[in-house]
Amino acid sequence: MYDKDIIYQRMLRYRMKGRVQKDAALARETSFQIGGPADILFFPENIAEAVRVLKLCRRERIPLLLLGNGTNVLVRDGGVRGVVMKLGGGLCELRRERDRIFAGAGASLADAARFALEQGLAGLEFACGIPGSVGGAVCMNAGAYGSEMRDVVFRSVFLDREGNVGLLDSLGHDFGYRKSRFQEGGSVILETEFLLAPGRPDEIAGRIAEYQARREASQPLDAPSAGSVFRRPAAEGLYVGPMIEACGMKGAAVGGAMVSEKHAGFIINRGGATAADVLELIRRVRAKVRERFSVDLETEIRVVGIAAEAQAV
Ligand SMILES: Cc1cc2nc3c(=O)[nH]c(=O)nc-3n(C[C@H](O)[C@H](O)[C@H](O)COP(=O)(O)OP(=O)(O)OC[C@H]3O[C@@H](n4cnc5c(N)ncnc54)[C@H](O)[C@@H]3O)c2cc1C
Prior knowledge:
CATH architecture of the largest domain: 2-Layer Sandwich
Strand content: 15-25%
Bound molecules: flavin-adenine dinucleotide
Distance between the termini: 15 Å
Helix content: 25-40%
Number of domains: 3
Order of helices and strands: HEEHEEEEEHEHEEHEEEEHEHEEEHEH
Structural class: alpha+beta
CATH class of the largest domain: Alpha Beta
């Protein structure tokens, strides 16, 4: 068992450029605006800092959790034990070489898509409205409007569990529907190379505007959420939002958590929601859908951390 004060002091002594915080509120780092504190939150600014802390965690058996923009996670109310790492500084840079964009995994996906537009490169338009980071999007094989990361990722540079730098081609990511090998945890995506195609900037911008309009018309973008809560069912013709709506669950609420009136596949934080509220609402939605459609909805959002009661023990 590690002592977080000792680990925190040790990390400060490393004199790294990246910020280190103890007992850091994770609600501030997630789009749901929910969740207890991280023992330690660290923002490495370069590969050497990420390697150093990954190795420290491995040596001292400290759990390490990667966080991107926190737009697909629900942090439980007791927070996260160990170190939460969120890439910053030089790990957020974007550059172009020929038809490729090299994106630091900490960069926002929207910035990467806008950069591709400025460079007259097509293929990332679908990603412009997905609010995650490049690393989070690759880990989740994020997608929209018929495209997903798998279609544009050429390769990624990553750190393995031992802190060695590796290079993976697209196939090596084991992409599946909202899945990749990085969901097993322990490795860190550092940079992803997108293979795009030359395109006319006005046409690329037109597609981005069209997707954005569709998103604004259908999603509750004005309320904190983590996007679609559930994965699309495997069976043809079944859609999560309409199924939940058919169960009469639109607007259903537990505490501050509510099934969105605009899109029943989203749960929003209408103010003061706890992770326990969200999890109970998820349980109720799943039970109703199972009863009516005999379908077990699986969550797409990643639930991390420990429950509040566990913290008090
Ligand atoms: C309003 C809204 C709309 C959304 N629309 C869509 C959509 O259209 N399509 C879609 O697919 N998703 C959508 N999402 C969900 C979410 O934005 C995506 O899944 C996004 O890719 C998550 O990225 P993130 O950086 O926020 O990851 P996080 O939520 O921070 O993390 C997600 C997972 O990635 C891991 N991770 C993050 N960074 C790294 C890294 N560098 N190395 C290794 N693992 C890492 C984390 O450990 C975690 O397991 C939406 C969310 C919201 C709030």
